[in-house]
Amino acid sequence: MSTNIIREITPLTQNDCFTIFSRLKKEFSFPLHYHEELELNLIINARGARRIVGDHIDVIDDLELVLVGPNLYHAWFTHQCKSEEIREVTIQWHKDLFEDKLLRRNQLSFIRSMMERSQKGILFSRETATAVAPRILSLNQKNGFDSVLELLSILHDLSISRNMRTLSDASFTNEHFTYNSRRIEKAFEYMNNNYDKSITLGEVARLVNMTEVSFSRFIKKRTGNTFIDSLNEIRLGHASRMLIDTTHSIAEISYNCGFNNISNFNRIFKKKKTCTPKEFRENFNSGTRVFI
């Protein structure tokens, strides 16, 4: 059942800082794909279209703004969209456009954090999209240095905006995540390598030389998730990839990803992704099959 996913070679050259495309269209026809460049997508007047970013699937409203990180699967599909005039603006830039040394400066820390979160995909709030849309729509009217400054300004405003939402599960992508803590990274590396086994808070706490209570507070403060939520997110990311890339039964995937029973797997999966594993597999395939 493995789904064909295209590796896109974008028209962005090594001599360009970024490239921008603005289109009016009646449907989405580009297949599920990925590329090394980061991509900011503004979609207007496409209510009812379906968005896939990593292992996240959703039906969109009439306005949305999404940032997609390097090598993360993504696509929009017509689905139930009836619009005759969809507006789509896509901005792509190299992942090394802003070098790590630059992004580590205090004034750019928010942009750096947003770039790291983009590896799971970011959906910005409607309020943010509404505020930034006119500047994105007019960006292709600027040239040279002014256009680069305006892009940087837009990215800064996005990075400090409220209510941005990450979309895909962490373990779905192969990109490395930085948590600015060796202990957290060591814990996540262990959970990611042993997600198919029984893992307890106690053994992970001992691994990083902390008590259970201290580590539980520490991981919540650093990631925003509890230990069990973090572990489940890792397991769900692997499960989602298996649902897409293999023909294994849902029961097999459940046990292969460390869930103690299929009922528990179905419950946690539906709570996180608002659909059952079976529906996820069907929705993903129905979204890609027409175009590949």
Provide structural commentary.
This protein is α+β, with helices and mostly antiparallel strands and 292 residues long. It folds into two domains: 6-166, Jelly Rolls (Sandwich), CATH 2.60.120.280; 176-288, Orthogonal Bundle (Arc Repressor Mutant, subunit A), CATH 1.10.10. The protein is built from eleven helices and eleven strands. The chain has helices spanning 100-103, 109-117, 126-137, 144-159, 182-193, 201-207, 212-223, 227-245, 250-256, 262-273, 277-288, and strands spanning 6-7, 18-25, 33-34, 38-44, 50-53, 56-59, 63-68, 74-77, 86-93, 122-123, 165-166. The strands form three sheets. The protein has a six-stranded antiparallel beta sheet, covered by helices on one side. The model is unreliable at 288-292 (pLDDT under 50).
Short summary:
The protein has helices spanning 100-103, 109-117, 126-137, 144-159, 182-193, 201-207, 212-223, 227-245, 250-256, 262-273, 277-288, and strands at 6-7, 18-25, 33-34, 38-44, 50-53, 56-59, 63-68, 74-77, 86-93, 122-123, 165-166.
